[in-house]
Each structure stands twice: as C-alpha cells, then as structure tokens.
Write a structure and sequence with these properties.
Blueprint lengths: L2 E11 L4 E10 L2 E6 L8 E5 L4 E4 L1 E7 L11 H10 L2 E7 L9 H14 L3 E6 L13 H7 L3 E3 L8 H14 L3 E3 L4 H4 L4 E2 L2 H6 L3 E2 L1 H18 L3 E3 L5 H12 L4 E6 H5 L4 H4 L19 H12 L4 E3 L7 H4 L16 H10 L5 H6 L3 H7 L14 E11 L18 E11 L2 E5 L1
Parallel strand pairs: 1-4, 1-5, 6-7, 7-8, 8-9, 9-10, 10-13, 11-12, 13-14, 14-15
Antiparallel strand pairs: 1-2, 2-3, 5-16, 16-17, 17-18
Helix pairs in contact: 2-3, 3-4, 4-7, 7-8, 8-11
C-alpha cells in the first residue's frame, strides 16, 4: 500500500481541536503521524496541500442507492465517484426500492458489490421492517452481525408505534441506532410542499410542520421508554430541532441530521425554482423546504452540535422528474454540492468552519458508532483536501452522479475538493 504524506496544508480535526499548519503521514491504511514539517520518507508519495484545508474524510449517514434495473440510473460506481468528488469517504446507504435490504444475505451482497465497484467505504443501512412494510420487524440482529450500521425504513416512517418501540428495544442489544425520518403519514397525506404562504400562492397542498413535530415527539417518547438508540432526520422544522436539543440535554441517546440544501434554501425556492419559474420539480423534496425561520433554526442546530449534516443524495432518473409537480418523485442529488453549501454558509457568517466540518466528520461518526471522522495516529487514512476560496456555479450536467436534479442548479457556492483519500489511496484528485 502506498505511503502518502500530505504537506503544507491547514489541518483541521474537530475531534481533537487541531487547527493549524501541519503535515499528515498515512501508511498501511492508517494515519501514522500528524505534525509540523514531518521528515520526508524515501518511499512516500507527497501531496502538496499548500493553501488548502486538510480534514478527515466526510461521512454521510444517508444516501440512496439507484435502481440498477435502468440504464440511466445511479450505479454503485457512479455513486462512489460522486462521493469522492464531494470529499466523502464513507457512505451509509439505503435502498428505497427492490431488492430490499432486510436480511443478512442482502447486507452481505451489498457490501461485496460495493467493495468491488467503489473506492470509498459503503456501509449498508438495513430495513427496520420486512419489505419496509411496517408490519413485522426485519432480522435486525442478523443484519447487525452481517455489517448493517443502522436500521431504517427510509422515507416511510414506521407507522406502528408498537413496531417502532420493539425496534428501539433491539437497538440496545445490537448497538445499532434506529433511523426514523419523522413524518406523520395522516397529517402529511397528499402534501407536496410546506403548508404555508408559498404553497397557498402556488395552489399546492401542504405538509404541515406538525407532521414532523408530532412524529419526533412520538419517537422520542419511545426512545425514552426503551433506552434505545434513535437517530432522527433529515429534520426541517425549528420545533423538531428544539425537541431533539432538549432530549439530548436530558440524556437520551438521540442524534439527528439535516440536509445541506435545507440549510441554504427555504420555501421561497419553490416560487422561482433553479430555472427561474415555479413548479420546478427539482424543488420537490422530502421533507419539504420550510420557512426562513426554520432554516435559521436548522443552521443553529448545526452550530451547537444538535444536528449533523447528511447529503440525503437521492439520484432520481430524468423520467421521475420531467413531469408535472404532483407526479414528480421527491429527492435531489447532493453529494457533489454539500461542501460547497456549507462553505457558502461559512462565508456568509451563518456557520463557523469548525462546526461545519464537525457536522461532516466526528459528528456522524459518533452518531452511528463508526470508525473514522478524525485525524490522529491510528485512525483510518481517510482525508479530504479542499481549497475553501473558489466560487463556482452548480452545473448538474457536469456531475459524476447520474442524478442531475437539484434545487441548487445555477446557485453560486464556494470551495473545491482538490483530493480525496480513502484507506490511504487517492480516490479523487484535480
């Protein structure tokens, strides 16, 4: 395995508080040494990071696998390429469609395929219930032993409180969190956008904030009753963030996440859209974009460590988005824009750089109990080198992902990934 030394960069490791000029030496898939002006070794490759920031490789707790049955769908190879270009070295992946990852064999199959087809780390998310139908628990223990790092039914909130309670009880035994995307199906039924002034103006049926807040309260009550490990998100409302903040202060084993696009955009994006007119289906997301006040609360949640950041990369095929708003599938491609969004918020003064990087590294690593997210001797040799200064315009047609729908198309973001190292190997470099 190649010995690598990253020289001359500003090393920021939120886990240790390190922030300063230093070199990072990697060997045999591990961080060997971090310090100023490390002595050169004869057999190592030198990566010049002058003028750049060196940080732990980003960890994404939620991204979606494409449907491999279609030629224009995302593959593991294109997913991995998009991740590396975005600075991500670990992806926690869920599958919304078939085949459902709800038993040990499916977990093993996904791990083996990912190892053969991608150069980043792919960690499977197992389903909470069989077939994601909400009626019967899947094989949580067997999937945990096979390598599932958490359990989720994805966008389908577990409808039965009894089933969710049982899953949280099992999370104590497996040591793996249950991930709940909180949305009460009865309150949200038929909704296409945040229930508010913009949806009313556009004539779109709304999804009330209460749909999320009610579901968060239910999940927290069950976590309190069982002592289970709960992860919520992506969240979109101020009240939901406050519930999580209070629960964490009370000692509950709960973590939560927000997407980068919910940190940058609010419901007004629906009225103009990336192309300049309303009803652009790239703004159809789940959860929906909420109010400006909600957006500010989400940023505050990242700033104080209540929330980590996920891509919620959901690479939709063109046919799923090139239709009327009511028929369009929710979701957006995001792996290649997350860092740009966060650095834009840093430049605006809405986030501190350390908080932004913490939400992509040690924060998610701790939430799922993953190795990584830090730069210290013995840690996995996963790093990202990025220039925080360049501004660039989002052009989805140039992305490595096959999913091209994003509400950020045309937006100006900041910062460029210069190199991504996973397991000590350079998997992306410009």
């Amino acid at each position: 395995m190649t010995a690598l030394c990253i020289r001359g960069g500003r090393v920021i490791d939120p886990a240790s508080g390190l922030d300063g000029l230093a070199d990072v030496r990697l060997h045999d898939g591990r961080v060997v040494e971090v310090g100023p002006a490390l002595a050169a070794a004869a057999d190592e490759v030198v990566l010049d990071a002058t003028g750049c920031i060196v940080a732990p490789g980003f960890i994404d707790l939620q991204c979606h696998l494409g449907d491999a049955d279609h030629d224009d769908a995302e593959t593991l190879a294109t997913l991995g390429a998009a991740a590396a270009a975005g600075g991500f070295t670990t992806l926690c992946c869920l599958r919304e469609g078939d085949p459902c990852v709800d038993d040990a064999a499916a977990v093993v199959a996904l791990r083996e395929r990912a190892a053969a087809e991608t150069r980043v780390r792919v960690r499977p998310l197992g389903a909470v219930t069989r077939g994601r139908q909400g009626a019967e628990l899947a094989e949580l223990g067997a999937m945990a032993e096979a390598g599932a790092v958490a359990f989720t039914d994805g966008a389908l909130s577990v409808r039965s409180a009894r089933v969710l309670r049982n899953a949280l009880s099992y999370s104590v035994l497996t040591g793996r969190p249950v991930v709940e995307q909180p949305c009460d199906p009865d309150l949200a039924q038929g909704g296409l956008a945040h229930e508010g002034a913009v949806a009313t103006h556009l004539g779109l049926p709304g999804i009330p904030a209460a749909a999320e807040e009610f579901a968060v309260a239910r999940a927290l009550a069950l976590a309190r009753a069982t002592g289970g490990r709960l992860h919520l998100g992506p969240l979109s409302t101020a009240a939901a963030v406050e519930q999580v903040r209070a629960a964490r202060a009370a000692g509950l084993a709960v973590t939560a996440a927000v997407t980068a696009h919910h940190l940058l955009l609010d419901e007004t994006a629906l009225a103009s859209g990336p192309e300049g007119w309303p009803y652009t289906t790239s703004t159809k997301l789940l959860p929906p974009l909420r109010t400006a006040a909600d957006r500010a609360a989400l940023c505050a949640g990242v700033a104080d460590g209540t929330l980590v950041v996920v891509s919620d990369h959901w690479p939709r095929r063109a046919i799923e988005k090139d239709c009327e708003y009511v028929y369009a599938a929710p979701g957006a491609s995001a792996l290649e824009s997350v860092l740009g969004v966060l650095l834009e918020l840093v430049a605006r003064g809405e986030l501190a750089l350390d908080a932004a990087l913490r939400a992509l590294t040690v924060g998610p690593a701790a939430a799922f109990g993953l190795e990584g997210g830090r730069l210290a001797p013995g840690a996995p040799a996963d790093c990202v080198v990025f220039d925080p200064e360049p501004r660039w315009q989002v052009e989805p047609a140039r992305w490595r992902s096959r999913g091209r729908s994003t509400p950020l198309a045309g937006h100006w973001l900041r910062g460029r990934v210069r190199a991504t190292i996973a397991g000590g190997e350079i998997v992306y470099r410009v």
